[in-house]
Design a protein that fits this description.
globular; 12 helices; 0% strand
């Protein structure tokens, strides 16, 4: 249900990447089993669908990293992508600056989505169990990417990391009773239907979500 509420609608507009994410997610069992060669092969297959899947090669060391190491890595990524990378691209390959949030095009897309992901991460940081610290490490990197690379580029790369919310959040909720878990899902359902309604009523709905909203509209004009 977490996947359906958080990722399903956005994945409909990025099918190739969604397939790559699914392969990477499937390969997690090889990280747990410490079968690095098999995980590497899964990443190669994923890259055949979308080149951005190469970022999943980081997951193996991230999963087994110590929390302090992960925190330093997150700070390094933030400083590197927010400060150093724009300067390097500006002097060498300025055409790629358009992919960065501060690259001349202010990318404010997905602002609410970023906030949702951040709140979920803080929740997981407080309530995660010891055996799920590897998921926290992976999600820690993913949650900052939309902030440093913008809602489009950063948001799409973050999907490889944040898909692990589907394992991390249920693991956090195991400490609570079933009534709490049911109540916990209500905001997720609200988010899903809000996103769906906003998407199908917006002018660009056909570009992102394959649903049409025909209530209170002239069907003859829409179907022409």
């Amino acid at each position: 249900m977490i996947y359906l509420c958080l990722f399903y609608l956005t994945d409909l507009s990025t099918i190739r990447q969604a397939v790559a994410v699914s392969f990477v997610f499937y390969g997690f069992k090889y990280i747990e089993q410490r079968k690095i060669f098999k995980y590497f092969l899964i990443c190669i297959v994923s890259i055949l669908f979308h080149k951005s899947a190469a970022i999943a090669l980081l997951f193996y060391p991230l999963y087994y990293a110590k929390p302090m190491t992960t925190m330093l890595a997150v700070i390094g990524i933030y400083v590197g992508m927010k400060v150093v990378l724009p300067k390097i691209l500006g002097s060498i390959l300025p055409i790629f600056l358009m992919y960065l949030e501060k690259g001349g095009i202010k990318d404010s897309s997905g602002s609410f989505q970023r906030l949702v992901y951040l709140i979920l991460f803080l929740y997981a940081l407080v309530f995660h169990r010891k055996n799920s610290s590897g998921f926290v490490n992976i999600c820690a990197v993913g949650v900052i990417l939309p902030f440093v690379l913008g809602g489009h580029t950063g948001g799409r790369l973050a999907q490889y990391f944040l898909i692990y919310y589907c394992l991390l959040i249920p693991e956090c909720n195991k400490r609570f009773n079933i009534n709490y878990r049911i109540l916990f899902m209500i905001p997720f359902y609200a988010y899903f239907f809000m996103y769906l309604i906003v998407s199908v009523t917006a002018n660009h709905s056909n570009e992102y979500v394959p649903f049409r909203w025909y209530f209170f509209e002239d069907l003859n004009q829409n179907l022409m």
